[in-house]
Amino acid sequence: MIGPSRVAELDMPAAGIETGAARPAQSYWNESWERLRANRVGMTAGILIVVLAVIALLAPVFTLVTHIEPQAINLDETFLAPGVKHLLGTDDLGRDSLTRLIWGARVTLGVAFLTVAMSLTVGTAVGMLSGYYGGWIDDVLMRLVDMVLSIPAIFLFILMSILFRPNAFTLAAIVASVGWGSVARLVRGEVLSVKQRDFILATRSIGARDTRLMLRHLLPNVLPVLIVAASLGVGQIILIEAALDFLGLGIQPPTPSWGNMLTNSQSYFFHSGFLVAFPGITIFVTVLASNIFGNAIRDAFDPRLKS
Amino acid sequence: MTQPLLEVQDLHTVFRTKEGTVKAVDGVSFELTPGETLGIVGESGCGKSVTALSIMRLQRPGRIVGGKVMFKGQDLTRLTEPEMREIRGKEIAMIFQDPMTSLNPVFDVGWQVGEPTRVHHGWDAKRALASAVNMLGRVGIPAAASRAEDYPHQFSGGMRQRVMIAMGLTMTPQVLIADEPTTALDVTIQAQILDLLRHVNREFGTATILITHNLGVVAGMCQRVIVMYAGRVVESGPTTDVFAHPKHPYTWSLLRSIPRLDAETHEPLRPIEGVPPNLIDLPSGCVFHPRCVFRIERCAKDVPALLQVNDTQHAACWVTQAGGELKGA
Amino acid sequence: MLAKYVARRFLASVVVVLGVTLITLVLMDRTRGTYVPGIDLNPSLRPEDIEHLRANLGLDRPFYVWYLTWMWAVLHGDFGHSMIDGSPVLSHILDRLPNTLELTATAIVIGVLIAIPLGVVGALRHGSKTDHGLTVLSVAGFAVPQFWMGLMLILIFSVTLEQHGLPWLPSSGAFSAFNGGDLLDRLAHLILPATVLSFFYTSIWSRFVRSSMLEVLSQDYIRTARAKGMSERRVVYLHGLRNALIPLITLIGLELPGLVSGGLVVEVVFGWPGIGKLAFERALQYDYTTVMGVTFFATILVIAGNLLADLLYGVLDPRIRYG
Fold this sequence. Notes:
The complex is a heterotrimer of chains A (307), B (329) and C (323).
Chain A lengths: L3 H7 L11 H17 L1 H18 L1 H8 L30 H37 L1 H16 L2 H11 L4 H28 L2 H8 L4 H38 L21 H4 L1 H28 L6
Chain B lengths: L5 E12 L2 E13 L4 E5 L6 H8 L7 E9 L2 E2 L5 H7 L4 E4 L3 H4 L6 H13 L3 H14 L5 H4 L9 H13 L5 E5 L7 H18 L2 E6 L2 H7 L2 E6 L2 E7 H6 L4 H9 L49 E2 L5 E2 L2 H4 L8
Helix pairs in contact in B: 4-5, 4-7, 5-7, 7-8
Chain C lengths: L1 H31 L14 H11 L5 H13 L13 H36 L4 H15 L2 H18 L19 H35 L2 H8 L4 H38 L5 H10 L3 H29 L1 H4 L2
Helix pairs in contact in C: 1-11, 4-5, 4-7, 4-9, 5-7, 6-7, 7-9, 8-9, 9-10, 9-11, 10-11
């Protein structure tokens, strides 16, 4: 890696040289951040997500202040319409909707981030190994990915949720068990293209070990793609998990999640249809924000992809 | 003097960009007489392709903002789109540089070559195919009848260009515009394609405009040549005259810069100093003056018009218009 | 050439199927210990059935024997028996399959029929207000939870309309139990679930068609077509769209798995009697074998769907056929 001092020695304009991974990577990250910041809509979406995450984290504080527990059943106050005491009304067991929504955010967002973390970890490891080593390792791993991706996800989720007790961790693991496949393919693709670049050859020729090469050189170059995939994927994962919760196969009541708040809603359609609206709108807004933010991040990293 | 077939008069085509308005074609004028082969030569970005596209009214997203293109008594710049479609492919045809990307990958070549006859003449598929096969044979594609069912990717580069030429000639147009027809091809194939174009010109009598940056191609193919620089015509005349005694410093420098086999090995190459101008912000006076070794004071101030400097040649240069000679070290 | 391509893809599919069976059975293995002995006490099961079940489930047998037995059974069309009543899983599947196909096929057709024009309009008018509007709709479309959209549509078009005495759309089942079953009745039941199912895909596909069209329209061969004097309509729809649709086919093929399984949630919300709802109902009753059988069957459909899409692609793109 040629550092700034060597550049001066060579007496050439700094902008024109291929200096290997480190220098362009640094300014690339800065450049990308600048581009992201310039994207008003994207930044708004990103801020919205951060706000939601903060609200989720502060759920206990909210309850402390309002003295309303999310699980507090009050059979005298079921199905109240939105009003002063209960801003978004109450559900079939008299529990406050707003409080449950806020606590539900913890669950939904928490499981989503956990799933993303798991998918990314396993997927990156597999993709890296596959792309780097090639040969039979690549064949085997990619066949494995093909197989996992062939099984219709939701059937697999249903099956696994009756086989394993569904709590937040197992739910995340279940959803991640399919998600890692696409991540692996993505990472493998990136690794294959980065592998061709000269600096890899150069680093190898000075005797760098495989793991070092993978971690210190390939990984930073793969990172942008991962970040984009993660931010675009969070939305879909939230939708999947909400669906599983709705079906009763995910987070079980009384723990509130945005999905399971809608589980038996068809029974109270006739008089309290509004209860159906709130959790759905929340999911919609969150997923929308994460999709927009994901697109903004992708555009920030690679403006050429903008249509 | 024969009546010119195509007459471009003071054509102006611009492209609006964020940085400013690019004057791609900045007052180009030339004539094309029936049956002749005219060369348009210049470096990349000088506006030769845009000129050709403007004639065909395919210059979008650019806009023709001035001038005329007279063809058979009509001003092509003023025609409606349906009227222009009657001309394209039928009276004036154009073939492009890269035959791989210029042919549609999902239709077989027989279909593509026959398309103009089906659409312009209303011929049925059978008749159109027969004519296409005939055309393919005439441009030198062996086993044309069976090859007509093949797809573009199944042909080699040279063969694909022949297909393009067949496609261009299928309606026996009066004018064929060939935009860098050999640039994307191997050198040996280039010669074959140029032969074909010469043959076609003789057999069909099609007037040809040959656009290229390669002076050698011009020398072998064109009776007359115009030299373009920064969107303007700087010199025009019979090829032999222009090459023997160029009357514009740009042409002169271009000819000098070509490496020669008979030069001494220690002689340095002679590139043209400087860089091509920014088309948004052209230099004052003569566009070429910053890079010109013959410039005089006037060149930076006044724009020279393309005027006759001897019996056969026109040049846009204050020096040669005043009778000066271009001689250098 | 085409035959070679088909053979290659088919072989790859077979390998994947074998792998999936292995995964499937490894998962199944986990349930072996949980088979309740009480199943023997089910009065509606004859002793032979119970033995058959035990043999089928491979209790007390080493894994590989069990695997081979199961594979053998599958190849003979035996996808296992329900743990609840011993009835063959396959017959349940075949009963419900036409309904699922009816729903998903309709959704695909709606999706394609709407996505292509929307995408083409977006491409032809890119940068305009119409285009921006369509993009916003698409982006919003990705974010709507399917089950919620279903619930909301039922709320609006079934419940609320009925409450106000207006003609309303049915909200469950594939056809009415009483004097129903005719085409109009089936269509009325199909509208809401098919709309929900196609919504998500319309959003994705219309954006894709748009970008594919934009890319195709910037290609050199489009310029050539114009230079031949072809009308703009011919250039866009014949020369352009034909090329732009090729990647769409691949995309639809890639989404086929999503459609076979994505329909599950819609089926449950709308009470649509398809294989998704079957799996769900049985899952709630811990009928592992049925769920396994359905999952495996659905997987076969997915793999077959991918193969079909690959073949279609090969037919449409001559570069593959003759390359």
